[in-house]
Backbone:
């Protein structure tokens, strides 16, 4: 039922401006249905007369030292932006130094010959501006935005951080720690794992296939960054882009003053190795034990940036997987309800890009989702695109383009992209016209040429024990573990612990911890272990703004035989509880989890030798024989999935650790798996936990006191 | 740039050519946004800011309705409408508004505050007519049905749970912004929250909702602003065609806020099961947007409590390590606003200590003032934020609407920044001494609740 304001008010409406009566519930009509459709509802107005889109003016010039300059003079608002690009990025990192360019980018604003990191931040904040620097695959960039009157300061800062960064050792250590922590966190994320595996399979030894790993980042030295800077930060490789309320003459004068003295030998011509070709599809399945979701990447190598089919592929991609209006989203999410989102993309880096269709789906529909994605790729090749769907895609791409060149900085960035990719500027200035020239026949032709479901890398990250059988009919399966090593099928079985640990080495004690968030104390934790008859009983509480946890776990006082475990946790509004009990060679109990983590479930699994309940691992490690290089694999029941998986703790080093409770020689242990972390245990037995760092978040637990 | 206002279309056509000079090519001034302003016969206020150098068009409607217009027992209606306006109208089925705009390559959104509700879309130049048509259709014929209302009431309630009830400090923040400083007897308008109460939302009846729509979602209570690459003559014709026939409504009743701060000083302790650290809040009675003192107060809040170089951060976080976070911000409204200080305690620090430190810092500003350097930085930061926001057509549309709505005239956009730049060190010290006084504030203490069981 529809309610109008009132009859009197409707009567005053201009004749013809609205329909007479709307149907109770108009069908989801096509956007440009003919006026006066059967429902009586009025159709939206058709587009106005096409207005020729004038791509805003820009100027290009070059300094005598070879630095290129693009200037967009657009004095609409008194704002000026500078972006400086260096045509060197992560693709230049040798495999054993992967991560080097990224750290160069992060460190540029962290100190120069005349300014500390704090001074750089103060200088830009004092004028209400921003500065940032980062590295991508093919180039590094430094960007800043200020009020136009502060353009000289912006030039001063951008040139200072670009030409005279000092990569201070202290900041280098900080950034490396942050990078390692981010990598560790990524290792726990299915989506990030899927992307890494996909790039490795599609690109092989080509630099686009190589991603940083903790080992390569750990091996980097400050000197590596300094030499990258010396080698690649040269004027012939630089593109300076200035936009906003600026004048060409002023920009040129400032550029000469700040960059005119910059010298460097021209860079050697850059060549890329070829991208491997694929003759058949294959499933690359990364085993993520206990995963309740699977992350899917399906695709293969794409096109070089100058390929003439680029625009037709933009239309194809919009139809297939760009946004909520596209096929993958509509089918996988709206129709099937398998996922929150499903998308596709054709990337456009300097060398060969890739094509990928991606989705994160519930574990139980993994094979159906992969099969549906494959079907949608074939459908693009086999069936012409219906006219209405084609038209919607073209009008979206042509219509949204003007919104992407609204501000001077956006205009400048479009021109810079073309130049960095070595393309004629018409590639961006004529974007709309080129999209409008694409025909439905073009879309099918490019689908047949550039979408190859029978030569695809099908990467799935999920619990292989649950999804392997369903994926095998789709294509031959290659298995990997989370560390990126090939594994065989039998490795999917949970392995019993290889050794027995002696629980009589433990002593009754109470450990209290501080929780640090960005090095500020933000909470407390305590662990109390006491004897109760033939058992050890550990009770713990962690209380902080980040999370609150209470638990009790019981196990045999001599042999770590698990008895029971109870845990309650609250993180923000999300709560979870678990209760587990061992009897008759099985672990039974239940998990209460928030709906987004899969809801509540019963647990009933076989107790295999050496298996641990949640909360026991810390005490097994305390009683273990530790030494550098040792690795201990423990089958642990995961309280968020109810499944059992081996977690490997590797002793990666020994160092002195200082915590509020004192300074101790300690072992550093890395735990891989869905919840990666770093532990520091006291070298003296029992190996008490001194410090625990949570991957990817600036959160740590540090030992405050130890009492008997 | 001369300012033009019309009340009658005949004159408007005559003056149109005068309103369209070439875009200024000399140094840009942030307020230099040429515009025309006029009213339709039904009272719809229209602001057109054609700019041939733009590549897009913003279609932006502000309704003069916010939570300040809600009656007792009917709080949350304004917010409910922000949702209902996407639930379909005579010619636009539910969900189509968004799809039509997206398929045209555009983007859209809506929001509500105490003082106004806005609806906006950015579109390519040949499709701004779609934005006008969509806005006119829902202004004229929103589908207010029992089913739509019940569904959106649930959505709003869920939003409240997510954004207030389950957020650490969520209820304290409502106390600091509304219930603490304002006397509900003297100013219900600001003495209740935008998000609405569960009871009032549950009690909503279709009849009340329809009444609210008829009164506030009328053309004579709205301002339509169009900014960007369009032909103003064409826009005027389209606006007349789409909006001209929508009947006006009787003028909405005046909002009363006679005696806002009669309760001050006050003090309240909030128990918060989501918070893990105590917090201290001080909410000082302030002034409306455009008040002579509002400029100095805004810069003062910036100096005391915004960014890492601010007084509170330097003292409480850096030097004393008594707080993990601090902030101060000015709230300037159609009616009397606030100045709100917040500090979250570090582990082991109690709120008495926070209060003492905040009071010391405020006393220092009252007696010694701030430095010229601090004032300069605050001005730079204020201006940069304002100006950078105006680079897009939507940013300019919002700026025109803001000046029109809060200062009564869109032309104020040309002079408003100058008023910030004119603030002196004496002004800062004077307003600190006048407003940041103990008798003029509500103190709110957040105590983490120790009970383990959270409320259901």
Residues:
């Amino acid at each position: 039922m529809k309610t109008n304001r009132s009859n009197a008010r409707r009567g005053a409406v201009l004749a013809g401006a609205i329909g007479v009566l709307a149907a109770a519930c108009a069908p989801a009509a096509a956007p440009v249905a003919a006026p006066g459709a059967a429902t009586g509802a009025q159709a939206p107005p058709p587009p106005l007369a096409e207005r020729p889109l004038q791509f805003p003016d820009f100027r290009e010039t070059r300094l005598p030292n070879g630095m290129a300059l693009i200037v967009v003079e657009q004095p609409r608002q008194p704002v000026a932006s500078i972006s400086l690009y260096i045509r060197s990025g992560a693709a230049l990192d040798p495999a054993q130094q992967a991560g080097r360019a990224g750290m160069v980018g992060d460190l540029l604003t962290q100190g120069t010959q005349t300014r500390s990191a704090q001074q750089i931040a103060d200088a830009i904040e004092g004028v209400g501006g921003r500065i940032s620097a980062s590295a991508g695959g093919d180039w590094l960039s430094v960007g800043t935005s200020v009020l136009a009157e502060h353009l000289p300061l912006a030039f001063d800062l951008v040139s200072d951080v670009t030409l005279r960064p000092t990569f201070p050792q202290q900041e280098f250590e900080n950034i490396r720690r942050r990078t390692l922590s981010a990598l560790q966190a990524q290792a726990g994320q299915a989506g990030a794992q899927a992307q890494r595996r996909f790039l490795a399979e599609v690109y092989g030894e080509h630099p686009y296939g190589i991603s940083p790993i903790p080992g390569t980042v750990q091996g980097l030295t400050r000197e590596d960054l300094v030499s990258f800077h010396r080698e690649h930060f040269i004027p012939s490789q630089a593109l300076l882009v200035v936009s906003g309320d600026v004048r060409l003459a002023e920009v040129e004068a400032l550029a000469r003053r700040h960059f005119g003295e910059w010298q460097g030998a021209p860079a050697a011509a850059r060549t890329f190795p070829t991208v491997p070709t694929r003759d058949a599809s294959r499933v690359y399945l990364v085993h993520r034990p206990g995963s309740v979701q699977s992350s899917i990447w399906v695709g293969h190598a794409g096109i070089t940036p100058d390929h003439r089919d680029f625009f037709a592929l933009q239309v194809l991609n919009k139809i297939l997987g760009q946004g909520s209006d596209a096929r993958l989203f509509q089918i996988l999410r709206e129709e099937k309800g398998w996922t929150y989102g499903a998308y596709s993309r054709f990337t456009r880096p300097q060398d060969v890009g890739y094509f990928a269709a991606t989705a994160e789906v519930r574990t139980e529909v993994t094979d159906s989702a992969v099969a549906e994605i494959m079907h949608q790729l074939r459908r693009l090749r086999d069936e012409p695109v219906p006219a209405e769907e084609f038209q919607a895609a073209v009008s979206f791409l042509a219509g949204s383009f003007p919104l992407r060149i609204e501000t001077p900085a956006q205009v400048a960035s479009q021109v810079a992209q073309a130049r960095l990719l070595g393309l004629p500027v018409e590639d961006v200035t004529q974007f709309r016209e080129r999209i409008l020239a694409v025909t439905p026949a073009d879309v099918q032709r490019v689908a047949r040429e550039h979408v190859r479901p029978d030569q695809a890398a099908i990467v799935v990250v999920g619990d292989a024990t649950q999804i392997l059988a369903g994926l095998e009919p789709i294509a031959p399966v290659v298995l990997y573990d989370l560390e990126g090593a090939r594994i065989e099928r039998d490795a999917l079985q949970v392995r019993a612990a290889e050794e027995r640990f002696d629980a009589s080495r433990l002593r009754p004690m109470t450990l209290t911890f501080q929780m640090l968030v960005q090095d500020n104390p933000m909470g407390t934790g305590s662990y109390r272990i006491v004897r109760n008859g033939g058992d050890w009983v550990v009770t713990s509480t962690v209380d902080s703004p980040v999370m609150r946890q209470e638990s009790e776990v019981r196990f045999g006082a001599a042999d770590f035989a698990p008895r029971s475990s109870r845990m309650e946790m609250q993180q923000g509004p999300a709560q979870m509880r678990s209760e587990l009990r061992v009897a008759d060679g099985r672990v039974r109990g239940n998990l209460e989890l928030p709906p987004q983590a899969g809801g509540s479930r019963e647990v009933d699994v076989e107790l295999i030798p050496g298996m641990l309940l949640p909360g026991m691992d810390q005490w097994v490690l305390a009683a273990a024989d530790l030494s550098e290089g040792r690795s201990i694999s423990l089958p642990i029941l995961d309280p968020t999935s109810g499944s059992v998986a081996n977690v490997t703790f590797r002793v990666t080093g020994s160092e002195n650790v200082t915590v509020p409770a004192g300074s101790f020689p300690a072992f550093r242990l890395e735990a891989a798996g869905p919840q990666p972390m770093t532990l520091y245990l006291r070298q003296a037995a029992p190996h008490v936990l001194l410090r625990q760092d949570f991957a990817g978040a600036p959160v740590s637990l540090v030992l405050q006191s130890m009492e008997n | 740039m001369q300012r033009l206002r019309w009340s009658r279309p005949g004159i408007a056509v005559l003056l149109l050519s005068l309103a369209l000079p070439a875009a200024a090519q000399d140094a840009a001034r942030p307020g230099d946004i040429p515009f025309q302003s006029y009213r339709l016969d039904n009272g719809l206020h229209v602001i057109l800011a054609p700019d041939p150098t733009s590549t897009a068009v913003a279609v932006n409607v502000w309704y003069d309705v916010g939570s300040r217009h809600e009656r007792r027992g009917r709080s949350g209606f304004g917010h409910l409408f922000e949702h209902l306006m996407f639930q379909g109208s005579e010619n636009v089925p539910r969900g189509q508004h968004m799809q039509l705009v997206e398929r045209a390559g555009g983007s859209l959104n809506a929001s509500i505050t105490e003082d106004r509700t806005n609806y906006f879309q950015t579109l390519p130049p040949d499709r701004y007519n779609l934005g006008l048509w969509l806005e006119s259709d829902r202004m004229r014929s929103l589908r207010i049905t029992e089913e739509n209302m019940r569904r959106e009431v649930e959505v709003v309630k869920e939003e409240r749970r997510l954004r207030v009830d389950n957020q650490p400090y969520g209820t304290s923040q409502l106390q600091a912004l509304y219930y603490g400083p304002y006397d509900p007897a003297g100013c219900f308008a600001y003495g209740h929250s935008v998000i609405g109460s569960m009871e009032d939302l549950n009690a909503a009846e279709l009849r009340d909702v329809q009444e609210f729509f008829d009164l506030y979602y009328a053309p004579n209570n709205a301002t339509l602003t169009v900014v960007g690459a369009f032909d103003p003559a064409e826009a005027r014709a389209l606006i007349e065609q789409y909006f001209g026939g929508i009947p006006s409504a009787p003028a909405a009743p005046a909002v009363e806020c006679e005696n806002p701060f009669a309760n001050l000083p006050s003090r309240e302790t909030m128990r918060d099961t989501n918070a893990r650290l105590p917090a201290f809040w001080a909410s000082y009675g302030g002034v409306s947007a455009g008040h002579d003192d509002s400029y100095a107060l805004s810069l003062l809040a910036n100096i005391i409590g915004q960014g890492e170089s601010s007084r509170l951060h330097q003292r409480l976080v850096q030097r004393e390590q008594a707080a993990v976070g601090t902030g101060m911000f000015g709230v300037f409204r159609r009616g009397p606003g606030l100045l709100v200080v917040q500090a979250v305690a570090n582990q082991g620090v109690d709120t008495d200590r926070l209060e003492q430190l905040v009071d010391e810092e405020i006393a220092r500003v009252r007696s010694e003032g701030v430095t010229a350097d601090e004032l300069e930085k605050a001005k730079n930061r204020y201006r940069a934020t304002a100006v950078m926001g105006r680079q897009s057509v939507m940013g300019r549309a919002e700026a025109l609407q803001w000046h029109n709505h809060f200062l009564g005239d869109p032309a104020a956009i040309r002079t408003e920044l100058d008023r910030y730049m004119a603030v002196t060190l004496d002004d800062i010290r004077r307003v600190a001494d006048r407003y940041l006084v103990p008798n003029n504030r509500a103190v709110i203490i957040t105590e983490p609740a120790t009970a383990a069981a959270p409320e259901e």
User: Anything to note?
Assistant: Residues 6 and 76 of chain B are 36 Å apart (CA to CA). Residues 1-27, 451-456 of chain B have pLDDT under 50 and may be disordered. The longest helix of chain B spans residues 146-165. Chain B touches chain A through 87 residues (CB under 8 Å).
